[in-house]
Structures are given as structure tokens and as C-alpha cells.
Amino acid sequence: MALLPILTIPDNRLKVKAKPVANVDGRVAALMDDMLETMYRAPGIGLAAPQVGVHERIIVVDLSEPGQARKAPLLMANPRLILSSDEQSTYEEGCLSVPEVYAEVSRPAQVKVRYVDRGGEERELEADGLLATCIQHEIEHLDGVLFIDHLSALKRNMIVRKLSKLKRAG
Ligand SMILES: [Zn+2]
Fold first, then answer.
1. Which residues hold their Cβ within 5 A of ligand 1, which is an ion?
2. What is the pLDDT of residue 155?
């Protein structure tokens, strides 16, 4: 397994729409493994392929606390929401591509997602709570959308300016 470099804003590759995975083969499974390793190391609870510069519809999620034994990673190709509740929930979100920034975002509280797993099987999963939020956050990455796009333009511009400055300084 290999650790992959994580892109951060304002990298334009984060805004590119990802293409569907035609076939979950060994190459895709290996990419999923590398993404999971990269996410654990960061550490984070979700990672989408565009965040490592790969424009394919692949996400990995594991909500267990950093440092805990992590046993139940979700590895998803072509994840797609087939149901979203009207009820909303609000969580403070962060993102490995938007370092050091946290903000509250409201999203549907329950979702049902259809996806292809690491073994090539089509599956459905019902999620609520933080898992529902995390899956929606990661799927949005596949369409070039970041959680800060849910914030007001004023707040978003402030964040982008601050991080651009930090990047230049570093
Ligand atoms: Zn993110």
C-alpha cells in the first residue's frame, strides 16, 4: 500500500467532476486500499478520489476514532444517493482538503446510498447521523463540490484567502 498526496484548496483539481468507474478490478481495489491508508494516516474519516488527484467516482469512509482499531471501512465505487430525508441534521464539518477549517453544514439526516463495493458487488446502505453526513460530503467531492461551498460567499472567500496565504507562506 502507498500513501497518496492529498490536494488542498485552492487546487483546481478539486473542482473537476469525477468519471464513473467502469469496472471494480484489481487496480480500483488497490486504489481504494491506498486511499484508506492515506485517510487513516491523515487522520480523517472520509476521503474521495479527487482529493488525491484521481477523477474517478470512488470514496472511502470509516467513522471510528483515530487511533482506535478500525474495523469497518466502507469502500465505495460509483456511490449514489437514492433517497434523502426531508429532515435535516447539522454537523460541524472539516475536510482534509481544507485544512484547519471547521464549519456547521446542514444536510439530509437520513440517506440511502447505492454503490459497488471493493469486490464488485452492488450494495445499498441506509445511513443516518454522522455517517449520512460523511457519505454526502464525500459524494459531493466527486462532483467538485466542497463543504465550504455550503457556506456564504463571504465566509468561503475568507477561508480560501486565508489558506492561499498559508500555502504561499509554506
Ligand atoms: Zn472533504
1. 95
2. 92
